[in-house]
């Protein structure tokens, strides 16, 4: 169980996740980082020590360094390209979400992981967020009866800074923000509902940021270099990505395979930044009022309740670390999985279903709202991953 050597590919916006995996005193250590930028090399040395090796590509990493697991933290359009190489080498692979920006690439990753018996884990950290886990526990308890509908509203108050000043703004590199952002929420909707979307339709638009003409190639900078919370209104944003063609507002309607109906709304020009889930059962409903530690989940179980007057309130637990403590918990589960395999809270099948729903939803939006059928995962593939990805364990050094 000791001596897990970890390679990291990409040390950009989500590179901080690798810091949770660097636990030399606990048997896991980042030993090599692949990133072409000089800035990443300096960052790697600061985070992982002077002995960490740095290379320019995943090919150099695989050719020149022995590792037991790899974390793929690149921009979205490179996830599948890199992960297919690490899975092909038989390595336990952590791939940041979304696992890919096409259904074909996501399916190829599942097929190769199955063929090589390589462990594939996707970074859906929201399954480890206290607010989501507490809602899941309420649903699973049967307290609100059988789930019939789920609504999610995602207010992305930092949308202009986070997603419209770099590659996220390009369809060719992100496909849609229904993947980069929506994959989280679609996965949570599926998890709470106990099913997967089989039919989706949507409407959306590039309503605000498409009208801004001040553009700049920001590839020489990172998000921290341009983020400014005092910019308001969104029309005052400057230095947007030269190519900006993803929607900044999207709305989906989903029919799941178990009959649950769901809707998802995402807006990138709101002043506030949080997610609001409503889960309606046939014996009650729950709704989160905020999604951080100390916020509340309201529970309605009678007709005597009302607005601001739920029958019960559950306080969202506090935890240390990014995303309400989800990030360190996510990486902890991956390290255990990389060593031992077996079942995990995060599901590679569900990650693929989130991609398929997001892609199909974006296609519907761009086709004027025409419904799209979401292709299911082949049964043999689903059975393999549901069994916990059996494979041989990582041998200690």
TrEMBL record:
Q: Which UniProt keywords apply?
A: NAD
Stretches assigned to the GFO/IDH/MocA-like oxidoreductase domain: 132-287
Residues annotated as domain Gfo/Idh/MocA-like oxidoreductase N-terminal: 4-124
GO molecular function terms listed in the Swiss-Prot or TrEMBL record: nucleotide binding
Query: Has UniProt tagged this entry with the keyword Iron-sulfur?
Result: no
Signal peptide, first to last residue: none
Concerning SUPFAM superfamilies, the annotation shows: Glyceraldehyde-3-phosphate dehydrogenase-like, C-terminal domain (SSF55347), NAD(P)-binding Rossmann-fold domains (SSF51735)
Q: Does the keyword NAD apply?
A: yes
InterPro entries attached to this UniProt entry: Gfo/Idh/MocA-like_OxRdtase_N, Gfo/Idh/MocA_oxidoreduct, GFO_IDH_MocA-like_dom, NAD(P)-bd_dom_sf
Q: Which domain of life is it from?
A: Bacteria
**What's this protein's name?**
Putative dehydrogenase
Organism of derivation: Brachybacterium aquaticum
């Amino acid at each position: 169980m000791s001596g897990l050597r970890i390679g990291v590919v990409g040390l950009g916006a989500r590179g901080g996740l690798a810091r949770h995996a660097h636990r030399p005193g606990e048997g896991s250590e980042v030993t090599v980082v692949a990133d072409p930028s000089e800035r990443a090399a300096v960052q790697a040395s600061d985070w992982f020590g002077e002995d960490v090796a740095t290379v320019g590509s995943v090919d150099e990493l695989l050719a020149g360094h022995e590792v037991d697991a790899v974390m793929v933290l690149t921009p979205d359009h490179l996830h599948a390209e890199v992960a297919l190489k690490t899975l092909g080498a038989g390595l336990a692979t952590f791939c940041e979400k979304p696992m890919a920006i096409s259904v074909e690439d996501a399916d190829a990753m599942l097929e190769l992981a199955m063929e090589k018996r390589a462990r594939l884990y996707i970074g859906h950290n929201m399954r480890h967020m206290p607010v989501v886990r507490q809602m899941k526990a309420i649903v699973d308890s049967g307290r609100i009866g059988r789930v019939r509908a789920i609504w999610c509203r995602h207010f992305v108050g930092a949308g202009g800074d986070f997603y419209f000043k770099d590659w996220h703004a390009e369809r060719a590199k992100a496909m849609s923000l229904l993947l980069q952002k929506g994959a989280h929420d679609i996965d949570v909707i599926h998890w709470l509902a106990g099913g997967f979307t089989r039919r989706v339709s949507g409407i959306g638009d590039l309503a605000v940021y498409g009208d801004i003409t001040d553009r700049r190639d920001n590839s020489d900078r990172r998000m921290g270099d341009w983020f400014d919370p005092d910019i308001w209104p969104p029309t005052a944003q400057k230095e947007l990505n030269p190519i900006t063609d993803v929607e900044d507002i999207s709305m989906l309607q989903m029919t799941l395979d178990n009959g649950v109906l769901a809707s998802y709304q995402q807006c990138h020009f709101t002043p506030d930044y949080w997610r609001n889930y409503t889960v309606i059962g046939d014996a009650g409903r729950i709704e989160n009022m905020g999604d951080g530690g100390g916020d509340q989940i309201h529970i309605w179980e009678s007709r005597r309740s009302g607005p601001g007057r739920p029958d019960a309130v559950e306080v969202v637990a506090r935890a240390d670390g990014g995303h309400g403590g989800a990030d360190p918990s996510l990486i902890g589960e991956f390290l255990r999985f990389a060593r031992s395999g077996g079942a995990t809270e995060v599901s590679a099948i569900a990650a693929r279903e989130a991609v398929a729903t997001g892609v199909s939803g974006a296609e519907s939006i761009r086709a004027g709202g025409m419904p799209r059928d979401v292709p299911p995962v082949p049964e043999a593939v689903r059975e393999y991953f549901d069994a916990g990805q059996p494979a041989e364990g990582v041998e200690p050094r």
